[in-house]
Specification:
alpha/beta, Rossmann fold, 6-stranded mixed beta sheet, 4-stranded antiparallel beta sheet, 8 helices
């Protein structure tokens, strides 16, 4: 990739706060308390880059994933996708953006019980207006790639947790997205199957940015960079590449990491 190619994803001073409780629970004069899930995060993600996202539970990983994917809106700051500020998109345009550009592996899979494995994987292609024959061929190809070629007609209730997770991964990849977001993508998988799935992620990474939130060291090992969060703050952004830019969000986070280590 040329050195002057802009990042696919750029987050600038990203903050997300949530209001707790309801006004009925408080006196009329009391302000509702807020919690800050993410605090002024600035990062960038390049095309073809695999980024691991680590941190303890409650550190802000899922919140960051939702913001990058366009599933949520920041309280302040910006998320830009290929130069477009996601905040400027209407609800309909944001939905279209996710459908065309983003593949998501949710931690709880969100498979439709009434559909077969192939039907679940093909669902995004239905929304895109792809012909039925082409949908079936593409869904079968992805299911075979994640080791479920013999489970194509099975419904979610007939699949194990690990098999359901692989269906969700195949669905995330079916549209050839420009960005893949995955929350604990190997959490339900045995070591061998997890390695196969990670190989599949790596194989699509030439043109696709991939962000993997995980506690698993083997999953983090395939990443080009690992971003670490704690209490909603950026504490480290480490890269396997030696030629890291000396300016911009990435160098800022590396200096944060150095300061954090010196305090500890």
């Amino acid at each position: 990739m040329p050195a002057d190619t802009p990042p696919l994803i750029e987050c600038q001073n990203l903050t997300r706060s949530y209001t707790l409780g309801t006004q009925r629970m408080l006196s009329r004069s009391a302000e509702r308390p807020t919690v800050t899930a993410l605090d002024t995060i600035s990062i960038s993600i390049d095309r073809g880059e695999v980024v691991g996202l680590s941190g303890p539970s409650g550190s802000g990983k899922s919140t960051l994933l939702h913001l990058i994917a366009g599933l949520d809106t920041p309280t302040s700051g910006t998320v830009t996708f290929d130069g477009t500020d996601l905040k400027t998109l209407s609800g309909r345009r944001r939905t279209k953006h996710r459908l065309e550009n983003v593949g998501i592996v949710f931690q709880h899979f969100h498979l439709l019980d009434a559909l077969s494995a192939r039907g679940n994987v093909a669902l995004p292609l239905v929304e895109l207006g792809i012909k039925k024959r082409d949908r079936r061929v593409r869904a079968k190809e992805l299911l075979e790639a994640v080791g479920l070629g013999d489970r194509i007609t099975h419904k979610p209730a007939q699949l194990s947790g690990g098999e359901q997770q692989r269906v969700a991964i195949a669905r995330a990849l079916v549209t050839n997205p420009r960005l893949v977001i995955a929350d604990e993508p190997t959490g339900e998988l045995d070591t061998e199957t997890g390695a196969q799935v990670l190989d599949r992620f790596k194989s699509v990474a030439e043109d696709t940015a991939i962000v993997l939130a995980t506690h698993d060291p083997e999953t983090l090992a395939i990443a080009d960079r690992v971003i670490s969060l704690r209490d909603g703050k950026l504490v480290a952004d480490t890269s396997k590449s030696a030629d890291i830019s000396e300016s911009g969000p990435r160098s800022q986070t590396e200096s944060v990491s150095s300061q954090s280590n010196s305090v500890q």
